[in-house]
Amino acid sequence: MSIPPPKNPQHLRLVSYNIRKCVGLDQRRDPHRILRVLAGLGADLVALQEADRRLGPRRAALPRALIREETGMQVAPLATNSVSLGWHGNALLLAPGWRVGHIHRLPLIGLEPRGAVFADLDGPYGVLRVITTHLGLRRRDRQRQMTQIMAELAALPSWPTVLLGDLNEWAPAAGFAPLDPYFRLHRPGRSFPSFRPVAALDRIATGPGLSLAQSGVMRAGAAGWASDHLPVWADVVTDG
After folding, report:
1. What's the farthest any 2 CA atoms get from each other in the chain?
2. 162 - beta bridge partners?
3. Which CATH number fits domain 13-238: 3.10.450.710, 3.60.10.10, 2.40.50.140, 3.20.20.60?
């Protein structure tokens, strides 16, 4: 689906979007363009990758005041300084009604500096643990990083859990063995590169107690050039 349908009130809508520091295909940095895309998705939770600039103090590419003004969402407190939106570029936006509990930041091993963030939330759909990450470019690094994430998850109290992010895997199904059998991995569609997508780099995974109702890739409007990735979305429901 190029445009998500209206959201069923019983469904939790999740979005993952690598915003490339708000730099579009025209090489212009335009936060307003990214926020127009986000506003059109009707999401409850949005995981962003590359939400902060890469060098120096890693200042936020998306101003916090603009996020609230143009989407009505709040920023989860993932940053460890006063200028970043997230941690290792991973940020989390929440619709009104969600409360943030425990935040856990996990540095990931590999060639490049990477991280994963675990956020325990409570809100309109009950309790939920969200893991957001941007995995490495090499498969051997991604395998070790997923293994790290699963080991960390096993040490935490059991909650309904979703994993959202740019998993950087070009293969349609191979390469995700460390996530089995806990997670069910969903492939909403090809999301990279945005102008002519050939790879489903951006994925959403659901743990026990959660089921996928529908999913897709947002291709309409500014999404086609606001970043080099397209946003992916999924509507999930609580089993039982």
Report:
1. 48
2. 130, 206
3. 3.60.10.10
Residue 202 · residue 167 · CB < 8 Å: yes
CA distance 161 to 120: 9
> pLDDT tens for residues 105-158?
999 999 988 999 999 999 999 999 999 999 999 999 999 999 999 999 999 999
Burial 60-83 (b: 16+ CB within 10 A, else e): bbbbeeebeebbebbbbebbeeee
Dihedral sign computed on CA atoms, order 3, 196, 224, 79: positive
| CA–CA distance, 181 with 169 (Å, rounded to integer) | 18
Do 136 and 145 meet the contact criterion of CB atoms below 8 Å apart?
yes
The DSSP output letter for 235 is E
Residue recorded with tokens 């997670």: 183
143-198 pLDDT, tens digit per residue, is 999 999 999 999 999 999 999 999 999 998 899 999 999 999 999 999 999 999 99
Mapping DSSP to helix (H, G, I), strand (E, B) and coil, where does residue 165 land? strand
Q: Which residues contact 27 (CB under 8 A, 6 or more apart)?
A: none
Token representation of residue 75: 């920023």
Q: Please tell me the distance from the alpha carbon of residue 45 to that of residue 73, in angstroms, as a whole number.
A: 9
Coil vs helix vs strand at 197: coil
Q: How far is C-alpha 32 from the chain's CA centre?
A: 19
Q: For residue 141, what is the enclosing H or E element? A: helix 139-154
- Tokens representing 168 are 């950087």
Partners of 117 in the beta sheet?
Answer: 105, 132
- Alpha-carbon distance of 41 to 184, in angstroms, equals 23
